[in-house]
Amino acid sequence: HVTVGIIGAKALFKVLYSGGHVQTGIDLAEQTTQPSWGYMAYNDLEPTTSSLWELWDTPTEGPGMNSRNHHMFSSISEFLVRAVSGIDDFACRDAVHVRPAQAPGIAWASVHVNTVCGNMSVAYRRTGGLQCAKVPEGRSSLQPALLAVDDVVLDCGEHGGVVAAIDFASWGLPYGTCGEFQANSTCGADVTAAVAKACVGQRRCTLSSKATTWPAPGPACSGPRRLFVQATCTAPHGVEVALAVPAAIREAVVHLPLAGADPARVDLFEGADES
For 100-140, what is each residue's pLDDT tens digit? Predict the structure, then answer.
C-alpha cells in the first residue's frame, strides 16, 4: 500500500519507473484495499466512476478539502502511459524507444498519444505460456446503480493454444503477483476446480466477479473481495506488438515485453501516421 499523499505520489511512480521497479508500481496500481487508487473504485461506501478522491479516506472525512473529482497530478495515469505501454518520449526525434512493461501479470496494453510530432500508438499482447487474471468484486454487487464491471477474461491469445491447466484460483483476499499468487489463510475460498471446469480446453473464458458466483471465503473477510486466477496455456509464450509512429520519426526501437520468458513466437506490426 501507499504511505504517501498527493505530493509524494507525484514522485513515487517516477522513482519506481526510473529505478527499474515497474512491477512494484503495477502492484500499487492494482491494489483494491485501503489506501489505494483501486479502493476508490471498489469500495462499499462510495465507489467512484471515472474520477479520483482528494483523500485516501474521503467517505469518512468531512466536506472541507475533500473533492470527489481530483486529478492527483495524474501521476497514476502518467505511469500507465509511460511505464506500462512503453511510450516514454513525446518529443519529435529521429529515433524513439518504446519500452513496454516487463511484467508477466500484464497480458495486454494499448495506448494512443497525440504528440507534437503526430500520433503515436502501441498495442501489445502476451500469448500462450503463463496467463494471469485479477479482478475485484463486481461493482454491481457494491453499488447496483453504477455501471457493472463484473467479468474477467482469461485469454491464451490467437496463437497461444488453449488453457491446459488452472494453476491457482482463489476468491477472497488473495495477494501476490502473477506466478507467485498466494491464498489468504483467513479470507479465501479455493475455486480452482470451478475455474478449471469453465476454462480448461478453451482459448478464452469469461469469469464473473459477482459475490454470488463463488462460495463464501470465510468470516474474517471485510470489504470487497477479489478473484485471482493463474493458468498455463498449451502453446509456449509469445508476444504480439503493433506500433505506429509519426512519419517524421525515422527509427523506432521496440523493447519486447518478454517478462523474463523466451518467446517461441514474436509478431511485430509497424506503421506510420502521416499527420
Answer: 988 888 888 999 999 888 899 999 998 999 999 988 887 55
Closest CA to 13 of 116, 70, 63, 84: 84
CA distance 170 to 179: 14
When pLDDT is averaged across residues 147-169 and rounded to a whole number, the result is 86
Alpha carbon distances (Å) from 266 to 31, 240, 257: 31, 6, 10
> What number is the average pLDDT over the span 254-258?
84
- The pTM of this model reads 0.84
Indicate the burial class of 269 (C-beta count within 10 angstroms; 0-12, 13-18, 19 or more).
exposed
Q: What is the pLDDT of residues 86-95, one digit of tens each?
A: 998 888 888 8
Core vs surface per residue 15-39: b (16+ CB within 10 A) or e = ebbeeeebbebbbbbbbbbebbbbb
Residues 6+ apart with CB under 8 A from 180: none
**Cα 119 to Cα 256: distance, rounded to the nearest angstrom:** 21
